[in-house]
Amino acid sequence: MAFIDCHFFSESLGLSTSMYVLLPQTTVGQIGLNNRSTGGKHPVLFLLHGLSDDHTIWLRRTSIERYAAPLGLAVVMPAVHRSFYADMASGPKYWTFVSEELPALARSFFPLAEERERTFVAGLSMGGYGALKLALRHPERFGAAASLSGATDIEAMARERLSREETAAIFGSADSLRGSDNDLFGLASGLARSDAGQPRLYQCCGTEDFLYEDNIRFRDHCRKLGLELTYEEEPGTHDWGYWDRKIQSVLNWLPLENGLANN
Asked: Which domain of life is it from (predicted)?
């Protein structure tokens, strides 16, 4: 695969920022990597980082390049800092960036598919929350979304795990979250009531993870709504050994075309 360390200016953030991008490349002489490309515009996975990380972390902590190479899948990894993928109450507009500007810029820079059926999003922890929020708020844009150990209950996160100052900077207050566009439970209920096509959803969490109970509540909520959700759990904590294993499960689950992955 080709690896691009891309630096660019964001109008919505008002500053220069970065993303890592992996692009499919068919090779014959390369040793130790099974590369594949279908040609044309590539199916794309927007892969999101967690609260204490940045856009470099998936390449540093997992073998995502090696896993994606035989699938002909492009991977876009943006930086959003500790924003919870929100237009911050006292800070940059990261939701506008990741939901509107980033996909448009990435597609203008690189040969990435535009069709919903070939566009996917995934992430871990804060990024799992961001992935689900993108798919639930814009089901017309994403064919599938995956959350690994996601922060699925944002109100509980804001009240119990973030400082009052950080909650205020990101969301204004925890009291404003329930039923808002930042609330995954409310967004899932809205999607179930709508006529919009529903993206496939994947959720996993280790049974020893501190976010396990939050994930169970969201899983049960989606099941009651009748949303198409694949849920997996196994022993594991909030750590990279678990996420390195489960991102492979996500890639195998993605509905990629031409037999490149299992449906």
From this structure: Bacteria
Instruction: List the domain range (segments joined by +) for residue 125.
Output: 2-252
Q: How many residues does the chain have?
A: 263
Task: Let me know if residue 260 belongs to a domain.
Answer: no
The phi and psi torsions of 66 (rounded to 5 degrees) equal: -65, -35
In a domain, 262, yes or no: no
Taking the whole predicted model, whether its pTM rises above 0.85 is answered as yes
CATH of the domain at 114: 3.40.50.1820
Comparison of pLDDT for 30 and 244, the residue scoring more: 244
Distance from the Cα of residue 82 to its chain's centroid: 15
Return the biggest CA–CA distance within the chain: 58
Q: How far apart are CA 32 and CA 110, in angstroms?
A: 25
Q: Are strands 74-78 and 15-23 parallel, antiparallel or unpaired?
A: antiparallel
Examine the pLDDT at 211 and tell me if it is beyond 90. yes
The model's pLDDT over 54-64, given as tens digits with 9 standing for 90+, comes to 999 999 999 99
What are residue 123's DSSP bridge partners?
Answer: 48, 147
Residues 6 or more apart from 108 whose CB is under 8 A from it? none
Can you state the angle between helices 184-193 and 212-225, rounded to 10 degrees?
A: 10
Interatomic CA distance for residues 173 and 138, integer angstroms = 24
The total of structural domains in the chain comes to: 1
Please indicate, yes or no, if residue 259 is contained in any of the structural domains: no
222 within some domain: yes
Give the tens place of pLDDT for each residue, 160-207. Answer: 999 999 999 999 999 999 999 999 999 999 999 998 789 999 999 999
- Measuring CA to CA, which residue among 79, 82, 97 is closest to residue 165? 82
Can you tell me the distance from the alpha carbon of 185 to that of 75, in angstroms, rounded to the nearest whole number? 27
